Amino acid sequence: MRQAQTAPAVFFIYFSSRQYLLPALLPSRALFSLLPYWLIPADLSIDYFFAIIFLSNDERNDFMSDESTNKIALVNLPDMPESVDNALTNLTDSPTKNAGQTFGDLWYLVFGGISHAADKKRMKYAADLEKYRNELSDAISKIPDDKKMEPSFQVTAQALENSKYCVSSETLRTMFVKLISGSMNQNTEPLVHPCFPEILKQLNENDALLLKDIFSAKQPLLPICNIGIHGNNTGHHILYPNVFLPQTLELSYPLCSLSLSSLERAGLISIQYDTWINNEEAYSKLKETSMYEEAKAIDNGFNFENPVFSKGLVQLTHLGKAFSIVCIS
């Protein structure tokens, strides 16, 4: 006698008035316990539930047969809560309204969604994309024929993919152009690393401009400091970490400090306080900042002549130098 084969039946859930059918395999009792309570009738035991779900092929055919008189509903669902029903509406509509409108505007950039509010953004993006294509074609055409080489798929494919989020920033777009064209030039290709497209994607415009400022500086070591106030005993408290004055870029302290952290995180610069520039004059402008004057005023109130001033230095890492040569110079 042939032994009946047992296979898990497919369990369908019908959501309220919306015709959503969600198939789910229930291969073990553990998954039964994960089902939301409102999906399972109160009078249905675990054993009886699995007696229904796990049927032999013959039994299942008989159970689902039109001629069968054993019409037992697998699950008698109550009406869905209104909040859940609304959530399903939002998920299936143009991806949400009000607070979700910004997301909807970004949606078209990746998936081609439609939003009337994004029309102007779409037109600007298309114009910037055309600029990008022309700038890239122009840069590649300027590579001497004897220096031109096939693009690296690992670098170029990544760069093109990552650059689509940055083409509206002229600074970042230019850096992507130089990265891609540089990977096709025998003179700069040895310096191009596959991590460059990912690093560039994670920079904002301030980060890029600050990196350019550091790279363009006449000296390789640049002054930086921590400014703080003295404590009651011998301790101190840093009020302003990483105070740095760019050479040619006007950037507020909070934005400059944030960009320094971003560049350091990317491995493009190093910030050190265990060593410093052996020239006191290099730090004189840092002592003229409003941060220094504020800390000094606080310390003077506690009979301290000068605030805490910890000297340090900023410099490009080896990775930062290669990245700057390819993407900036």
Structure write-up:
This protein has a four-stranded antiparallel sheet. The protein has 13 helices and six strands. Strand 3 (222-230) and strand 4 (236-243) form a beta hairpin. It is elongated. It has three domains: 1-93, no CATH class; 117-201, no CATH class; 205-327, Translation Initiation Factor IF3 (2-Layer Sandwich). Helix 6 (119-141) runs parallel beside helix 8 (170-182), helix 7 runs antiparallel to helix 8 and helix 10 packs across helix 11 (253-265). The N and C termini lie far apart (82 Å). The chain is of the alpha+beta class. 43% of the residues lie in helices and 11% in strands.
Which CATH class of the largest domain applies here? Alpha Beta
- Sketch the topology as an H/E string, one letter per element: EHHEHHHHHHHHEEHEHEH
Biggest sheet: strands side by side, in what order? 4-3-6-5
Structural class: alpha+beta
- Gyration radius (Cα, Å) is 32 Å
Indicate the percent of residues in helices.
40-55%
Largest sheet geometry: 4 strands, antiparallel
Tell me, briefly, the overall form: elongated
In whole angstroms, the N-to-C terminal distance is 82 Å
Low-confidence stretches: 1-56, 66-78
Percent in strands = 5-15%
Helical segment count: 13
Task: Name the average pLDDT.
Answer: 76
Number of strands: 6
